[in-house]
Amino acid sequence: MIDFIYRCLPVVFGCHCIDERSFHFRGRKFPICSRCTGELVGIVVSLFLSFVFIPKVWILALLMAPMVIDGFAQALTSYKSNNKRRFITGFMFGYGIFTLFIISTIAVFMFGVNIAKK
Question: Which residues pair with 28 in a beta bridge?
C-alpha cells in the first residue's frame, strides 16, 4: 500500500518531489513535496469543515493568492521559500480550491434540481 501511495500521489498532484523541498519522517522522504503536502491536508480539512462552515468566494480567492505569489516569486526571482511557508501556503490553497469545488458542485446540483422542478 505504501508503494502505491508513493507512486500515485506525485502523479495526482503533479509534484516534482525535490528532496530538499520535501518533509522527512524517520529518515524517509514524504511522497510529495511540502507544498503539495499542505494542499493535501487543506483538501482533507475542507472536506470536514464544509459541513459546518463555507466561507464567501472572495475569502477563498484571498486564501489561494499567497501560494500563487510565493510560487511565482520563487520561479521568477532568486527568492527561495522554506518548507514551512510552502506547507502553509499549500494548505491555504488546498482548502480554498477544494471548498470552491464543493461550492460549485452544490450550485450545479441545485441548478439541476431547479430545472427538474420546472
Answer: 25
